[in-house]
Structures are given as C-alpha cells and as structure tokens.
Design a protein that fits this description.
Length: 753
C-alpha cells in the first residue's frame, strides 16, 4: 500500500504507535431507508441515508464503499478522512521500555462497517486488537509488532466521533496496562486519556468477569469532564517491567492485548490468556466499536425558525436534537415512531402490538395500535385500562352466572308462555272458539278464568263420562259445575259446536243449564249450573231417608217435562237425551229435578266410536229396540220408564241379558201384583194406589215397539192427570210446582235469539 501524503510528516511518531480496534452499533429496517433509486444494502448490511454507496445517494461525508470482491460484499467507510493506519515495526533493544518501534512499513486501511442505525445516529465498525507478545525474544530483543490507530476525521470536522458512552477501553493479560491515546497525542506515550490495569500473580481467574484479574476495563468520563471529542485514537501499553517473570507467566502467556471495544461485547475467558496472538486470531476482522454520527456544520433550527435548505431532518414525525457528542445535530423519530428520520416519510408508526414483549397490554385487554402509540381497551365485559393496570370483570363470576341464569330463566319462561299462548289459541280455534263466540247464551271463559273460578280445580264433586267434575264459583257467587267433554278434532268439531249451541239454547227449569265453556285446552270444558242435592240416583239408592210419594211424583213430572221440552224443541225429532237415567236427573234444594248430561251420549258416540256400544247410555236403561246406535226420542221414553220403576220400587235398575229387572216388573203388573213391587216405605193405601197408577204409565213407556210407547209430553200429562184425580178424590196433598206443563217459563227453541 502506498502511504498518503498526509502521513509523511507523522512517520517518525508512528514508531510509537500502539494499535487497537473498536466497534459500532446499527439496526435493520424494513421501511424505505435510502433515497429513491439508491441501493440500500451492501451485502447484508443496510445502508440508510445519509449514507450511500453511489454518487447522489449520500450526504457529503457519509459515503460508503461497497467492496464486491468479497462474498457477501463488505461495506467500508470511504477513506477520504476516516481510516485505520496499520504499521509494522521492530522494538528497539536499546530503548528503555518497549514502546519504541522501528517502523518498517505502514498503510491506510478503510474502516469496515458492521451496521448503521439512522434512528439512533450510530454505526458500528471493526477496530483492531493491539497485541504485544514477547515470547521468543529476550528482554531487550527487538521484535516485530503490528500497530494500528484510527482516524475519524483527518481533515477537519467530520460526521464521526467515538461514542463515549458505548465503548470501553479493555486490557487482557497477566500484567498489562493499556492506554488509550487520543488526538494529537496519538503517537506519544504521554497525554493518554484512559488506562486500566490487569494483573495476575497467581493463576486465579474468573471467566466472564473483567475486574482486574487478567482483564481490565474502563469507560469514558462524561463529555462535560473532557474538553475534547475523540476523533482519533489508538491503544498503546504503559512501559512496565514485563519481564519480572518469577512464575513463568511470560512463557505461557507472552501476549498483552488492548482494545477500544463496544461495552459488554467481550466476555473474558481464561483461555484468552494463554498462547500467542489469541485475540487477534479469534477476531481476525477486529472487534466492534461504536461511532456517533451527526450533521456537524449546522444546528437545530430554533422554534419558528425556517430550517436551512440542507436541513437533514426531513421526515415527518421527526425532530432535531443536539448531537450526543461534538457539534451539530442529529435527527430522531418521535417516540413510538421508528425508521429513518433523514428521509421523507422515513419515520413510520410503530405497531406496538407486534412487540408484546416491549409494549404490554395486561391480560383481559386487546392491543390496539394507534398513530404514535397504542391502546389497550379492555375486552367486552371488562372495565379499566389494560395499559395502566389490569382490566377487571364488569361483573364478578357469581354475578355473571346469576345474570346468565336469570336471563335463561326469563327466556325459557317467555318461550313457555308463548308456546302456551299459541297452544291455547290453537285449542280455542280447534274447539270452535271463533264460531261459539258469536252464540248468544254461552259465555266463553279463558283457561285462566276457569282456573280462578274452580280455585285451581280444588273441589271434585263427581265423575262424569269424560272425567272429573269440579265445582266452581262465579263472581256473583253462583255455584257452577265444570265438566270435561271430549277431545275435539276436525271431524268431531262441527258436532261439538252444534251440541254446545243446542244445549245453550235449552232454557228450562227442568234442564241443567249450560252456562259457558272453555275451549283453550285439548279437551274443552263445559260449565253448568250447579245442582245442590245431587242425582235422583243418589237420593234413592245412596240414602236411607224416606222419599215421600208426592216428591217422587213431582220428580217424575218435572223430569218428564224437561225431557218433553227437549224433545219438542226440535221439529225433526232428532234431539234426544240418549242417556236418561236416575243418575242424570239432578235435584235442587227443593227437589226440583233437572235433566243433565244432555247430548253427552251423542258426543260420546262421535268421540269414541269403537267403544260406542259400551259407553252410550247405561245398559240398565237402554232401549232394547236400540239397534246399531240408532236412538230415537222413544228410546228416551223407554229409559224414563225404567226411572219410573226405580221411583216406584226404589230398587236400582240392573242389567242382564234377559232384562229381568224390566220383565219382572211388567210381569208383576200384568199379574196385578204390582203393589208387591212398590217400595216398602210406601205404606198408605192411597199412595200405593198412586204408585200403581204410575206403574201403568211406566208400562206404556216400556212397550217393546217404540211406536206404541207414549211420548214424553204424554207421560208428563198422564202423571199430572193421576195427581189431579187423586186430588179430586179429596186428597189433602198439596202439590206445588210442576203440576202444569209449560208453566211460567216460556219455551225457548234452540237457536232462538
Ligand atoms: C451478514 O452475513 C453474515 C454471513 O452470512 C452473517 O454472519 C452476519 O450476521 C450478517 N449480518 C447481518 C447484519 O445480517
Ligand atoms: C476490495 O478489497 C480487496 C481486498 O482487500 C482490495 O484489493 C480492493 O482494492 C478492494 N476494492 C475496493 C474498491 O476497495
Ligand atoms: C540505540 O538507539 C540509538 C537511537 O535511539 C541509536 O543511535 C543507537 O545506535 C542504538 N544502539 C544500538 C546498540 O543499537
Ligand atoms: C527489524 O529486525 C529484524 C531482525 O531483527 C531486521 O532484520 C530488520 O531489518 C529490522 N527492521 C528495521 C526497520 O529495523
Ligand atoms: C510490512 O512489514 C511486515 C513485516 O516485515 C510484512 O509482513 C508486511 O507484508 C509488510 N507490508 C507491506 C505493505 O509491505
Ligand atoms: C473458562 O472457560 C474455558 C472454556 O469454557 C475453560 O476451559 C476454562 O477452564 C474456564 N476458566 C475458568 C477459570 O473457569
Ligand atoms: C476547554 O478548552 C478551551 C479552549 O480550547 C478552554 O478555554 C477551556 O477551559 C477548556 N475546558 C476544560 C474543562 O478543560
Ligand atoms: C458475550 O456473552 C453474551 C452473553 O452470553 C453474548 O450474548 C455475547 O455474544 C458474547 N460476546 C461475544 C463476543 O461472544
Ligand atoms: C454543510 O456542509 C454541506 C456539505 O459540505 C454544505 O452543502 C452545506 O451548505 C453546509 N451547511 C452549512 C450550514 O454550513
Ligand atoms: C407486562 O405486564 C406484566 C404485568 O402487567 C409485567 O409483569 C411485565 O413485566 C410486563 N412486561 C413488559 C415487557 O413490560
């Protein structure tokens, strides 16, 4: 290598040179870092503006040379003012001390770059390890040494200065006192700035620590305490009595090392103490040192002042700062922005959320990047701020569970209610609600009202054909009986409706009145007036009380009148009770009979067709002429005949295939032995005669041929006639009530409005 002219004058001093090396920092960037059209890399090293490798791509003083003869290519600072000087020389044997070197040759080599950081305005370069070995030489022997110094700005102020904060002076050896020599004193042994002492008498070393035993280091004093900036430096060794070698250290450990190196980079190990040129061989390119760079010929514009034309901080989101050491300024991105402040749009928002180890959102929050920062909003259901503290549950878990539970219950209840309402509506429609609503004499109750009326179906007063019969009480205190009917489907719907309409039209004192219905259930309920004393059946057969003959007659007449009314209400004579029997004749407190369960058998016949023959009516009362389910009004008359027998004999009607109950009675009458059959409670001759007369009416009802039977009106009239006759014969009985047909209550025909 040729020596630049600048150094010719320094040659003699170079003899005193001691060498070392240094370091620098940098980092990599993904955003555009160089000027448009300029290469931003040399090999794998990023080259951010103001640095550049091509003309027009760098600010003056920031040129980088990319040497492509290496693979990968290596980057060097351009040599115009920043370089190392490397020289070789002999120690002079006759010099007191070992710091005199006869320089044999020397050269200038460029500073190789490790990396550059525009955001911190730092770079790292490779510096040398100064090595000084004595083995093979006697104490005063000449021997070859390699020397190195570093120039950062040979020709006046340049961008680069050694970073006082990020480097240390370090020495390694068993008896070494390295010195950093700087500035104009670089070629002398005096005027040094830093020194440290590493000393070791006994072989007690600790790997990893650099505290004086085999290794020493010292950092730079704060800049305010030194009146200069470090733009040229080298490492030399303090003359010392290296050869007071009592324990052979000089033989095993002949070399001393000194270096300016990035702090915390080198890790001492005892291995480095032994052998020749160990560190130089370990780090052939050198060791890293850190340089600050800045724009030296300018300063930050004051507030409101127009920045100069060559102002370097051109990125948005950036500002200007005084250089860390030396003159000038540097550019920095704002906090939470990163990138290259020296180019347009170089500072970009940092997505803090991509760096959770640096920017922390506490658990329960979600990291949200914002321009110039980030936020940690708490997840839904939590409150607080994930950036300043922890998010906490809006509701503690038990409350959540409770709320959740309550909500579920409410939803379920609503669903059930809706379902229920829909069901009620469906039943209502299915059971003919819309039609029955228009019918005059019947009131339609909701299932809720019915529940109220029956006090939640509390009192059962009997068992009907279709199920239990409940007692209820209307608002006006009137007592009512509520009965289930049959399940209504599309085919039976019309019959049901018709039946309800007919029944509601039946208004007669001897017929249990239909008051209303409730259709909002699978099986509709019908509401009737409540008749206190229960049925004639109960009175005759479940009671031992004497039943006076006049009462029996009144019951017979009233029942007959009710049935007659029923039969007369339909010109086509299709209406019949279908199940006339003592159990279906109810008695109020004054023993006024009321026909009940009207039409039931008809509904039964429709509702349960396959069981019809068993459920229609009561076999004990059934008309033997009944064939194939064809019932006529005369069938009711037949059944009423049997009721008359029960009234006369007070013996419960029974059924057998021979119809013994009826035939025995008929036979007794024919044989003039009817009085033998009469209830033993009836003792007066007058009453017995009356009963014998009623027996005759019964016989007329029981004729095998329906055509020959009386009709109900005739039955009624015949019994009334019997009573009149007995009165005319001077009887003092005073019959009240049902002595006349069609007394005060006017006849209402079904459907009459
Ligand atoms: C550059 O490449 C070399 C070798 O491939 C590698 O050792 C070094 O770490 C790389 N440097 C950077 C800054 O990526
Ligand atoms: C590249 O490096 C080689 C080897 O050190 C050297 O000979 C050559 O001159 C360098 N080239 C440039 C352009 O610096
Ligand atoms: C010792 O050094 C001086 C110069 O410093 C030189 O003149 C002299 O010749 C040297 N002596 C020997 C013996 O080399
Ligand atoms: C250095 O020493 C070697 C051998 O001791 C000798 O050959 C060489 O000439 C010397 N060089 C100078 C510059 O004194
Ligand atoms: C300088 O001298 C040393 C020692 O003799 C030698 O190894 C090296 O190659 C020389 N360098 C140049 C550039 O002559
Ligand atoms: C230091 O580490 C090296 C290699 O790991 C080991 O050989 C040596 O014994 C260690 N020295 C001490 C003093 O622990
Ligand atoms: C620094 O140097 C200037 C002149 O170059 C001098 O006036 C000043 O006193 C020095 N300060 C210190 C702390 O040495
Ligand atoms: C020194 O040790 C640290 C921690 O183990 C490691 O990261 C670093 O790379 C080491 N330095 C060198 C030069 O090996
Ligand atoms: C700073 O130096 C650059 C390059 O030498 C020059 O273009 C610029 O005008 C200078 N600025 C000032 C304020 O001196
Ligand atoms: C992240 O937050 C947790 C808890 O808030 C804390 O312990 C941890 O040190 C934080 N980590 C960082 C890198 O800030």
């Amino acid at each position: 290598m040729t020596m630049p002219w600048q150094y010719s004058q320094l040659l003699p001093i170079l003899l005193l040179l001691a060498t070392t090396h240094t370091i620098v920092a940098a980092d990599t960037q993904q955003q555009p870092i160089a000027l448009a059209g300029c290469p931003d890399k040399c090999g794998n090293i990023s080259i951010p503006f103001p640095f550049g490798t091509k003309a027009g791509c760098f600010r003056e003083g920031f040129e980088v040379t990319c040497n492509y003869s290496f693979n990968p290519p290596r980057a060097f600072l351009a040599q115009d003012s920043t370089f190392h000087i490397v020289g070789y020389g002999n120690y002079s044997a006759n010099y007191s001390g070992r710091n005199y070197v006869d320089v044999m040759n020397y050269s200038q080599v460029p500073v190789e770059l490790l990396d550059i950081s525009a955001s911190t305005s730092e770079l790292r370069g490779y510096g040398a390890v100064r090595s000084d070995c004595i083995d093979g030489y006697s104490k005063y022997d000449d021997h070859l040494v390699k020397l190195q110094g570093t120039f950062l700005g040979w020709n006046g102020p340049k961008p680069f200065l050694l970073s006082p904060l990020r480097n240390v002076l370090m020495g390694v050896g068993w008896n070494v006192k390295p010195k950093m020599v700087l500035g104009g004193s670089i070629f002398t042994t005096t005027g040094y700035m830093l020194a440290c002492l590493a000393y070791m008498r006994y072989n007690v070393l600790t790997n990893g620590t650099c505290t004086g035993r085999g290794c020493c280091q010292t950092s730079f004093p704060p800049e305010r305490d030194v009146n200069f900036t470090i733009n040229a430096f080298s490492v030399t060794f303090e003359p010392q009595k290296l050869l007071d070698d009592n324990d052979g250290m000089s033989t095993n450990s002949p070399c001393s090392y000194g270096m300016i190196v990035e702090s915390s980079w080198y890790n001492f190990t005892s291995e480095d103490m032994f052998g020749r040129m160990v560190l130089a061989n370990k780090y052939p390119r050198g060791v890293p040192f850190v340089l600050d760079f800045a724009i030296r010929n300018g300063s930050c514009p004051t507030e409101g002042q127009q920045p100069p034309q060559d102002y370097a901080c051109i990125s948005g989101n950036s500002n200007c700062a005084k250089a860390a050491s030396g003159d000038g300024y540097v550019c920095r991105c704002w906090d939470n922005y990163d990138g290259n402040p020296y180019i347009t749009n170089g500072c970009q928002d940092v997505d803090e959320c991509q760096h959770p180890h640096l920017y922390n959102c506490s658990s329960g929050s979600i990291c949200k990047n914002t321009p110039g920062g980030y936020e940690c909003p708490c997840k839904s259901g939590m409150r607080g701020n994930g950036k300043e503290g922890a998010c906490s549950e809006n509701f503690p878990l038990p409350a959540k569970v409770a709320v959740g539970l309550a909500a579920s219950i409410v939803i379920i209840v609503l669903m059930v209610m809706t379902h229920q309402l829909l069901k009620l509506k469906r039943f209502y429609e299915q059971n003919g609600g819309p039609i029955l609503k228009g019918v005059k004499n019947i009131r339609i109750y909701t299932s809720k009202q019915l529940k109220q009326i029956t006090d939640n179906y509390k009192v059962v007063i009997g068992e009907g054909h279709f199920g239990k019969v409940y007692i209820g009480r209307l608002e006006d205190k009137q007592e009512v009986a509520i009965k289930k009917t049959i399940e209504v489907d599309e085919t039976s719907k019309q019959d049901f409706i018709d039946e309800v309409i007919i029944q509601s039209g039946m208004r007669h004192k001897n017929i249990v009145r239909l008051l209303g219905c409730c259709l909002e259930m699978d099986v509709p309920m019908l509401m009737y007036e409540y008749v206190v004393k229960g049925s004639l059946y109960d009175v005759l057969f479940k009671n031992k009380d004497n039943v006076p003959v006049d009462t029996r007659l009144r019951i017979a007449i009233g029942s007959a009148e009710g049935l007659a009314y029923m039969h007369s209400s339909d010109v086509k004579s299709t209406i019949r009770h279908g199940d006339v029997k003592s159990a279906n004749i109810l008695l109020d407190e004054s023993f006024t009979p009321k026909i009940s369960d009207f039409g039931t058998s008809k509904l039964l016949a429709r509702g349960k067709s396959e069981k019809t023959e068993w459920v229609i009516g009561d076999k004990s009362y059934i008309d033997p002429a009944y064939l194939g389910g064809i019932l006529t009004q005369k069938s009711d008359v037949y059944s009423f005949g049997i009721v008359l027998i029960e009234l006369i004999t007070r013996r419960e009607a029974t059924y057998d295939d021979k119809r013994t109950y009826v035939t025995n009675f008929i036979q007794a009458c024919q044989e003039q032995k009817a009085r033998n059959s009469i209830d033993n409670d009836i003792t007066s001759e007058k009453d017995i005669v009356l009963m014998e007369m009623v027996s005759e009416v019964a016989l007329e009802c029981l004729k095998a041929n329906p055509e020959e039977r009386l009709d109900m009106r005739e039955v009624e009239n015949r019994i009334i006639h019997i009573i009149r006759k007995s009165e005319q014969h001077g009887q003092d009985r005073n019959y009240q009530g049902n002595l006349r047909p069609n007394s005060e209550v006017p006849l209402l025909k079904p459907g009459e409005k």
